[in-house]
Amino acid sequence: MIGAIRTGLTAMLQALKVFAFRHFYRFSSARSWRGQVGPAPFTDMQVPAAGGTIGARLYPNSQG
Prior knowledge:
Helices cover 50% and strands 22% of the residues.
């Protein structure tokens, strides 16, 4: 009996965690797509290639 109650509560907690995660992800993605998050910093650069140069962007990472 206790095991059945524990299993039921665990399932409900898991469903609640999934619900919260999905809504957080949906909200943060929508906010990002609507332009609430600023553009990432980058540096324009030219990469040498066989036929000339290729334009590229270099994005810094958080680890330097």
